[in-house]
TrEMBL record:
It comes from Uruburuella testudinis. This is Type II toxin-antitoxin system HicB family antitoxin. It comes from the Bacteria. InterPro entries: TTHA1013/TTHA0281-like.
Amino acid sequence: MLAYPYKLTPDDNGTFLVTFPDIPEATAVGEDLESAKIEALDGLLCALDGYFEDRRAIPLPGSYSDTQDTVSLPALETAKVLLLNEMVSQGVKKAEMARRLEVHMPQVDRLLDLRHNTKIDFMEKAASKLGKHLNISFS
């Protein structure tokens, strides 16, 4: 899974601002440290939605220290980020992906929607249509 480092900055009103060095559009606010850490994932996902809407490659997380705070994307969202990046890298548009998958455009729209619970076998099929394999492991 992709783990994005973030920075917590105390604000002058007692809240904490969450920012992500790799995704500058991503921010979140928490009333305290615990709520800021909880809000970090939602702030990151909201920013990533913009990348999906614009069909732009999403920056992958940079290196970070073991002591740095990170938020990990869930497995399905990680797979969708990697799928989008591969489509952008190969210049594959949504219509072309629909043709390759032999599905209608709304199914590709859902495939590229972070909030849609896409089945893993469809993700695997999409990866194969790009000449890639979806790998899953326990760690």
